[in-house]
Structure formats: C-alpha cells, structure tokens
C-alpha cells in the first residue's frame, strides 16, 4: 500500500490508540473531579471514540462511500439516591463544564430512587486483560470498493437466473472506550470489527426471490473471501426459486443456526432484569426452574480470545465471570446490572449492558444429521416480523425456508407463519447441532423443535 493509501486507510482507524485512550482516561478523571466539586456523592463517566469506513455497490456501480468519526462523552452523577445524566460530543472546556452542570442540575430536581447508585465498590474488576480484539484493517476506499464489486460479481456469475442485485457492502470500524467511576475504577477497551456482505435477486416479476450472505470478524483475516461470500449468496438465492406453500398443520421445525440464535435471544430478554422488575416477562420467578430438556445448557464466557463480546468488566465496572446461565435444563440465574438487581433484591451478575459470549452446548452432529433426525418437517432459514409477546411468551412470526422429507431438503417454501409459546418451545427442544454460527456473540448451532403450528395454505 502506498503512502497516500495508507494515510487514507488510517483515517478509518486510530494511528495511536493508546495515546487516545490515555487522553480519554485523563478526561474522565477531570469530569469526575468536576462532579465531586459540585457536591455529587457518586459519579461515573463513559468516553468513546469510533472511526469507520463503509462502502456500498450495486450492479457493478458504486452507490455510497461513507467515512465516519464519532465521539461521545456521558456523565452520570448521584446526589444520594437522586440521579442525573447528560452527554456531549464537544471537547471544548466550556461544553464539558456545562455537561457536568446539567447532570448535577437534573439530579437535584429528581426524586430519590432507592435502587439508584453505582454498582457496589467490592464488585469492581481489578487489573487489565487483553482479549485480542484489536486488529485494524488498513484498507482504503478504493480497495474496499474492489472487494464489494468482486463479491457481487461472483454472486451474479453463479447462475444466469440471478439478474438483479440488492448490492454488496464492505465495512470496517474501530472503537475506543473508557469507563471510570468515583469508586476509583478505570477501565479501557479497544476493539475492531469488519464485515463484507452481498444480497442478490433471482427470477423475474412475482417469481423473484432475494437472499444473501455475510461474513464478519474482529480481524479481516477471520473473514471469508469476497468471492466466497458472493458464491454463497448466489447459492442461497437460487435455492429459493419456485417456492411452494405448505398445508397448515403441526410439524417439527428446524431453525438453521442463523435463525436459531433468535430463540436464545428471547430467553435472554425474558430473564433480563428490566423485564423482571417491571413484571413484564414470560419467565417471571423462573430462576431454579427447569425450562429445557436435561441435556440443554448455556454458558456465558466473557473471556473468549477474539470473542465478539469479550470483556473483563461490564458497563458499570463490575467484574465479569464465566458462569452457567442454564445447566441441566434449569435456569441458574437472571441477567442483571446493579439497578435491576436492587429492584429485585438480588445482586448484579456483571451484565450491565447485556450478556457477553454465550455458548449453547450441542447434543447432536452436523446440519445434515439434524435433517435426518427431523425426517419430515420445516427447515426455517429466515424469520420476519416481530410477533413475540414478551409478557406471555406467545410466538408468531412469518418464516421462509425449505420442506424436508426423508431427511433431505425437497423444495423452498415461503408465505408461512410459525406459531407456538416460547415456554413450550423451550421444553420441546430435541437437538442442537454442532454447526455453530460464529457471526454472533450468541454461539449456537441449528435447533430442532419437536412440534410447532405452521400456518400455510
């Protein structure tokens, strides 16, 4: 890469990330001192900087090239149990002073909240850990465009029935973050993430079908090649041509891995503190209950090297821990930050800001073996709509995929709805494959549900 291209590429990352983290750390301490000087009993500061490049192409032409550079400073103060927050992206001294003052003014006029305050000091993480999350991609816009065009071209060349495209895109981003609070905690993190995607359209008129594929990684070396992404997008798109309807009935349903992780997402939403203390979850009072078959388990592991959500501390500085969320089919705990934990009379689980890397244990073989185990039923590769009632667990979503007979895919289907109740669906899990989709912090293979209502013709 020549000097000009390297300079262009460096604009989408950070030339000296450690120096920028030092500057953000120093800024956080100044803001904490300003909050204390105004009488705050506790305070916390979040500072972040992001840089990125995104390009989009369609039908062999460049559509957009976007370079981003963002910054955010958030200040939260507590006067006893009264809380105030304010934020800015302006680093001028007067703006920073105004931000602290606004947070303090808000706190002075809010009501006491018994659950308000920093996480308990004894829960703070100690020491720094590196999870190999920093891998800048020194790519300029011209090279990113070349990769996107190559991916789309490979996909369009896969089959002559692919006559149109929704485009291909390449993105790269780098993030720096500092969190500090008046307990004396100071955490620094840096991470990168890169992606390449392609979406294609096959057929004509009302017979058109769309599908695609994408790859992502914290390092560009972890991603599939542009040509491979295009070919996979082409294969998936052509496979959906000439779909049929299904007769309405109850069938086994196999959720392909990229769709299966949404089921784990519903579990997490149901056991998260905010929904629980508001009494707005279908999994109220479920800790210690058997929700799944005995072989089912989910482990949270924040310490995966090069993991998408690896961290030594959560959004409040609380130390994270490797632990079981579900073991032997039994829910072991909830997912809590300090506020929701206090509302429930419990303790933080180190999940302020969400869960980290979840590992769903497989009890079956590869995707082909799951098809054979199902024998006859519906393979779901795409879900549509938001028809999930978080309070009752009632589940109804549009779906597309393939009909399976004798353990083999027969033909594509669409225009169908799958329905059930999440509690009963969890109980009906029959198998989880080892075909883990690594493009998410929820690592699961395909999930076979014994029986669901499928509404078709």
Write a structural description.
The protein starts with a helix and ends with a strand. It contains ten helices and 17 strands. The chain has two domains: 3-239, PmbA/TldD superfamily (PmbA/TldD fold); 243-457, no CATH class. It has helices spanning 3-10, 17-37, 93-108, 141-156, 226-239, 257-270, 273-277, 338-344, 367-374, 422-427, and strands at 42-58, 61-79, 82-88, 162-181, 186-202, 209-217, 249-255, 298-300, 323-327, 330-331, 358-360, 377-384, 394-405, 408-421, 429-432, 442-443, 447-455. α4 runs parallel beside α5. The longest helix has 21 residues, at 17-37. A six-stranded antiparallel sheet has the order 3-2-1-4-5-6. A five-stranded mixed barrel has the order 7-12-13-14-17.
Keywords:
457 residues; alpha+beta; PmbA/TldD fold; 2 domains; six-stranded antiparallel beta sheet; five-stranded mixed barrel; 10 helices; disordered N terminus
List the helices and strands and how they pair.
Layout lengths: L2 H8 L6 H21 L4 E17 L2 E19 L2 E7 L4 H16 L32 H16 L5 E20 L4 E17 L6 E9 L8 H14 L9 E7 L1 H14 L2 H5 L20 E3 L22 E5 L2 E2 L6 H7 L13 E3 L6 H8 L2 E8 L9 E12 L2 E14 H6 L1 E4 L9 E2 L3 E9 L2
Parallel strand pairs: 7-12, 11-16
Antiparallel strand pairs: 1-2, 1-4, 2-3, 4-5, 5-6, 7-17, 8-9, 8-11, 9-10, 12-13, 13-14, 14-17, 15-17
CATH level-1 class of the largest domain: Alpha Beta
Provide a count of the helices: 10
Give the full name of the CATH homologous superfamily of the largest domain.
PmbA/TldD superfamily
Question: How big is the Rg?
Answer: 24 Å
Sheet with the most strands, sense and barrel status: 6 strands, antiparallel
Number of domains: 2
Point out poorly predicted stretches.
1-7
The ordered string of helix (H) and strand (E) elements is HHEEEHHEEEHEHHEEEHEHEEEHEEE
Instruction: Give the tally of β-strands.
Output: 17
Proportion of beta-strand residues: 25-35%
Structural class: alpha+beta
How much helicity do the residues have? 25-40%
CATH architectural designation of the largest domain: 2-Layer Sandwich
Q: Trace the largest sheet across and list its strands.
A: 3-2-1-4-5-6
* Mean pLDDT over the residues: 95
What is the fold named in CATH at topology level of the largest domain? PmbA/TldD fold
What overall form do the CA principal axes indicate? globular
Alpha-carbon distance between the termini?
57 Å
């Amino acid at each position: 890469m020549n000097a000009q291209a390297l300079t262009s590429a460096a604009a989408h990352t950070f030339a000296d990330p450690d120096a920028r983290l030092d500057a953000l750390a120093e800024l956080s301490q100044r803001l904490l001192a300003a909050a204390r000087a105004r009488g705050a009993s506790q305070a916390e500061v979040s500072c972040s900087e992001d840089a990125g490049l995104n390009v989009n192409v369609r039908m062999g032409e460049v559509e957009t090239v976007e370079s981003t550079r963002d910054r955010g400073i958030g200040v939260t103060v507590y006067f006893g149990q009264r809380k105030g927050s304010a934020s800015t992206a302006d680093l001028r001294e007067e703006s920073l002073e105004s931000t602290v003052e606004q947070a303090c003014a808000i706190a002075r006029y809010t009501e006491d909240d018994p659950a308000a305050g920093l996480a308990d000091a004894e829960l703070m993480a100690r020491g720094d850990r590196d999870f190999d999350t920093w891998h800048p991609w020194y790519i300029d816009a011209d090279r990113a465009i070349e990769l996107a065009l190559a991916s789309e071209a490979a996909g369009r060349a896969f089959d002559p029935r692919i006559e149109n495209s929704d485009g291909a895109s390449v993105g790269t981003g780098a993030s720096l973050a500092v969190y500090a609070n008046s307990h004396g905690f100071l955490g620094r993190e840096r991470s990168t993430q890169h992606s390449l995607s392609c979406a294609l359209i096959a057929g004509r008129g009302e017979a058109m079908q769309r599908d695609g594929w994408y790859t992502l990684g914290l390092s560009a070396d972890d991603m599939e090649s542009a040509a491979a992404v295009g070919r996979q997008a082409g294969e998936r798109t052509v496979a959906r041509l000439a779909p049929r309807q299904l007769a309405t009935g109850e069938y086994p349903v196999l959720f392909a891995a990229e769709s299966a992780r949404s089921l784990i997402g519903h579990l997490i939403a149901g056991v998260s503190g905010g929904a629980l203390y508001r009494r707005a979850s279908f999994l109220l009072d479920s800790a210690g209950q058997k929700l799944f078959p005995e072989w089912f388990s989910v482990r949270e592991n924040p310490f995966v090297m090069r993991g998408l959500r690896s961290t030594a501390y959560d959004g409040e500085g609380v130390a994270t821990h490797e632990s079981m969320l579900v073991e032997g089919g039994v829910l072991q705990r909830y997912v809590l930050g300090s506020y929701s934990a206090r509302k429930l009379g419990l303790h933080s689980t180190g999940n302020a800001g969400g869960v980290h890397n979840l590992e769903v244990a497989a009890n079956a073989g590869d995707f082909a073996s799951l098809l054979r185990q199902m024998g006859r039923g519906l393979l779901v590769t795409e879900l549509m709509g938001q028809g999930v009632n978080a309070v009752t667990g009632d589940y109804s979503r549009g779906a597309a995929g393939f009909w399976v007979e004798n353990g083999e895919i027969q033909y594509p289907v669409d225009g169908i709805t799958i329905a059930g109740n999440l509690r009963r669906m969890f109980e009906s899990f029959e198998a989880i494959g080892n075909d883990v989709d690594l493009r998410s912090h929820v690592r699961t293979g395909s999930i076979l549900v014994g029986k669901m209502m499928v509404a078709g013709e």
